[in-house]
TrEMBL record:
This is Aldose 1-epimerase. It comes from Protea cynaroides. GO terms for biological process: galactose catabolic process via UDP-galactose, Leloir pathway; glucose metabolic process. InterPro entries: Aldose_1-epimerase, Aldose_1/G6P_1-epimerase, Gal_mutarotase_sf_dom, Galactose_mutarotase-like, GH-type_carb-bd. One of its GO terms (molecular function) is carbohydrate binding. The active site is at residues 193, 326. Its EC number is 5.1.3.3. Pathway: Carbohydrate metabolism; hexose metabolism. Keywords: Carbohydrate metabolism, Isomerase. Beta-D-galactose binds at residues 91-92, 193-195, 260. Belongs to the aldose epimerase family. It catalyses: alpha-D-glucose = beta-D-glucose. The keyword Plastid does not apply.
Length: 361
């Protein structure tokens, strides 16, 4: 483990809010790296979080293309979810409650009356164990694990969770999020909340980036960004990004001040069980990001809530300073029977795959 300046960093922190056995353990919280050639990714096990992704541009110049912080203490006080693994249920749950098998579960409300990304202390705000770490070699990877307890943030049942980040080929990253319900049926919907700016984390806004999303429908939301339950076509609306579109060309037409909506992925396959989700390109650097996933939805968020956040290396992140591509189950699925179910029964497993391919043009 190391600080961003390369010096060793160990923060001994007592885990709170886990099982009685684990609550007596102390775990190190630090930074970790996997690297292959010029492609390097750094993490912290606070929230199983991506801290940096360094890639070459079309001229071979390296830059860090995700937003983040220099210090672990800043991640601990973060409200933007920079780079984090979010859960037990990513996105929003209306009224911070749901009913399962006749029982109503009341959850931690951390966005008005609603639950966002698992509650006030979701998976982004806990210490994950580093189970395996191969920093280099043919297939560099790191695996984080976390044991979520029955009643955590109001959710039922014990759940074992892991997130594995692996460099597959040159400039290709896989993210595998797994979970197993141990003793009760429970909703599970994990997501990675990296904020991408392909021009570099300190290069300004992403309005000149172009994006194509492989989804011809969205799940419309109310003023609190809670889905109405409808599945609506994007045709003829500013949400139509089915063809490569400059983000800034339509963003002023969005009543909420920017994109923050779940797209229903159409199912165009890109290999195996994975579906095409999105392609993003930054014309100045030439960097391209292609995303595939096995999930039914994609939350596209344009950093509308970023407001001059102090980031890495003294950078100040502006509104629209990055974009998020959160493959996921549909938001508030637990309260909409017509949405794909996120309920995992005892002994059953959940698996979320993402593959991110980086290139230049």
């Amino acid at each position: 483990m190391f600080n961003r300046d390369g010096s060793m960093a160990k923060h001994m922190i007592l885990i709170g809010g886990v099982s009685s056995k684990e609550s007596k353990k102390k775990l190190d919280v630090g930074f970790y790296e996997i690297k292959k050639g010029d492609f390097s990714i750094k993490f912290t096990n606070w929230g199983a979080t991506i801290v940096s992704v360094i890639l070459p541009d079309k001229n071979g110049k390296l830059a860090d293309v995700v937003l983040g912080y220099d210090q672990i203490s800043t991640y601990m006080n973060d409200t933007t979810y920079f780079g984090a693994t979010v859960g037990r249920v990513a996105n929003r749950i209306a009224g911070a409650k749901f009913t399962l098998s006749g029982k109503t579960y009341k959850l931690s409300a951390n966005e008005g009356n609603n639950t966002l990304h698992g509650g006030a202390r979701g998976f982004s705000d806990v210490i994950w164990q580093v189970k395996k770490h191969q920093p280099g070699g043919q297939t560099p990877y790191i695996r984080f694990s976390y044991n979520s307890f029955d009643g955590e943030q109001g959710f039922p049942g014990d759940v074992k969770v892991s997130t594995t980040f692996k460099i597959l080929d040159e400039n290709k990253l896989s993210v595998t999020m797994k979970a197993k319900a141990i003793n009760k049926a429970t909703p599970i919907n994990l997501a990675n909340h990296a904020y991408w700016n392909l021009g570099g984390h300190n290069s300004g806004d992403i309005l000149s980036n172009s994006i194509q999303i492989f989804g011809s429908h969205i799940t419309p939301v109310d003023k609190a960004l809670i889905p109405t339950g409808e599945i609506a076509s994007v045709k003829g609306t500013p949400y139509d990004l089915t063809k490569s579109t400059t983000i800034g060309s339509k963003i002023n037409q969005i009543s909420t001040g920017g994109y923050d909506i779940n797209y229903v992925l159409d199912g165009e396959y890109c290999g195996g069980s994975l579906k095409k989700a999105a392609i993003v390109q930054d014309s100045k650097s030439g960097r391209v990001l292609e995303l595939c996933s096995n999930q039914p939805g994609l939350q596209f968020y344009t950093g509308n809530g970023i407001n001059n956040v102090q980031g890495k290396g003294g950078a100040v992140y502006p509104k629209y300073g990055a974009l998020c591509l959160e493959t996921q189950g549909f938001p508030d699925s637990v309260n909409h029977p017509n949405f794909p179910s996120q309920i995992v029964k005892p002994g059953k497993k959940y698996k979320h795959l993402m593959v991110l391919k980086f290139s230049t043009k």
